[in-house]
Amino acid sequence: MLLLLLPWLVYRYRRAARERHVTLQVSRQAAMKGVKTWVVYARSWLQAVRWIVLVLLMLAMARPQLVWYEDKTEAEAMDILLVLDISPSMLTKDFAPDRLSVAKKVANEFINRRPFDRMGLVVFSGGAFTQCPLTNDRRLLQAFINNLQVGRLADGTAIGMGIATAVHHLKDSPSATKIAIVLTDGENNAGDIGPIKAAEMAKALGVRVYTVGIGKDGTVLSPVQQNSNGTYTFAPREMRFDSSTLTEVALLSQGRFFRAFTPQDLNGIYTQIDRLEKSKITIAKAQRTTELFFWLLDIAFCLLVLELFLRWGPLRVITV
Q1: Confidence label for 286 from pLDDT (cuts 50, 70 and 90)
Q2: CA–CA separation, 32 vs 92, rounded Å?
Q3: Dihedral of CA 109/253/258/213: which sign?
Q4: Residue 177 contacts residue 206 (beta carbons within 8 Å)
Q5: 178-184/128-135 β-pairing
Q6: What is the DSSP string of 41-100?
Q7: Which of 169, 75, 92, 96 is nearest to 128 (CA)?
Q8: Phi-psi region for residue 302, left (φ > 0), alpha (ψ -120 to 50) or beta?
Q9: Segments of 227-287 assigned E as strands
Q10: Which stretch of DSSP H or E encloses residue 218?
């Protein structure tokens, strides 16, 4: 719009210049021969440089950009909630350094392999809550996982409450594929909702539940008492694991049950889950653009310096 004012500005300037023009009367035109030099011709074009500077400034204000491309990626994605057991038994030493540390490490690796999925985190012990809602922010989710600690909830293993919390969070998801991956090392012994009831809720709402049992069978070095300073006393004890319930939960929701006896097993399980059915989506990334306005400003600045140098240097007019 500002460029439309340019012809009017040029007209006003030329009109004012004519009014300021001094007429010198001579008897013959021949008397003026040889008076015009290159300086006279150069000065007639000097004002054009200033108009060019003005045009460049107006164009720079419009902020021109060079668009390289719009990156559209067709990807396979789903909504996934990781449901992690943070009961004290997850500190058992049959995994080095403990089950929870290995579970956190493998979960982070799984997240890195899923760049297009929305993922979240539900934790449970004697109760359950959503630690991180569904998000595409990988670093935020991994920060929540890295900061997980036992003892934040009442003791117990409320597997059903963990599944129910995940299902409640996923029920309004627009994704065609909704997954809950439940990782635990014990049997359900707490909570108002049992695992089977939670699995029926998941089936009704289209949420597929994959259950993962972590830990070795038999006698293991496990927490038996929490000390006053928050640490735990460890002693050998027989761990019980309810594989049948977790298998039934997975079958009811059309998922699968996995058993991880070693960290390698756990990593392999997440790799298998990584190959699950996915939904096709198209992700449009931000356009890559190059700003051009600063080039226009640089050129305008150089021309303005040149014009001032000429106007007050070689082409200067001395009025007497």
Answers
A1: low
A2: 107
A3: positive
A4: no
A5: unpaired
A6: HHHHHHHHHHHHHHHHHHHHHT--EEEEE--EEEEEE-EEEEEEE-SGGGG-TTSSS-HH
A7: 169
A8: alpha
A9: 232-239, 257-260, 279-284
A10: strand 218-226
Pair of tokens at residue 308: 């001032």
Tokens, residue 163: 């599944």
The CATH topology of domain 73-283 is Rossmann fold (3.40.50)
User: How far apart (Å, rounded) are the C-alpha atoms in residues 96 and 255?
Assistant: 29
Winning range, highest mean pLDDT, from 92-96, 165-169, 267-271, 279-283:
165-169
Residue 182 corresponds to which amino acid? Answer: V
Q: Which helix (H) or strand (E) holds 104?
A: helix 99-112
Pair of tokens at residue 132: 């991180």
Q: For 71, what's the count of Cα atoms within 13 Å in the CB-facing half-sphere?
A: 7
Q: For residue 32, give Cα distances in angstroms to 24, 25, 27, 29, 35.
A: 10, 10, 10, 6, 6
Q: Residue 247: what residue type?
A: T
**pLDDT band (50, 70, 90) for residue 214:** very high
What is the widest separation between alpha-carbon atoms in the chain?
125
Residues β-bridged to residue 86:
none
Question: pLDDT by residue (tens digit) across 88-119?
Answer: 999 999 998 999 999 999 999 999 988 888 99
User: What distances in angstroms separate CA 19 from CA 13, 23, 37, 129, one per listed residue?
Assistant: 10, 10, 23, 83
Q: Where in the chain is the domain with CATH 3.40.50.410?
A: 73-283
Specify which residues 279 forms β-bridges with.
77
Which amino acid, one-letter code, is at 286? Answer: A
Q: What is the pLDDT of residues 220-245, one digit of tens each?
A: 999 888 888 888 899 998 887 888 99
SS3 at position 142: helix
pLDDT of 31: 46
User: According to DSSP H, which parts of 177-262 are helical?
Assistant: 195-204, 243-252
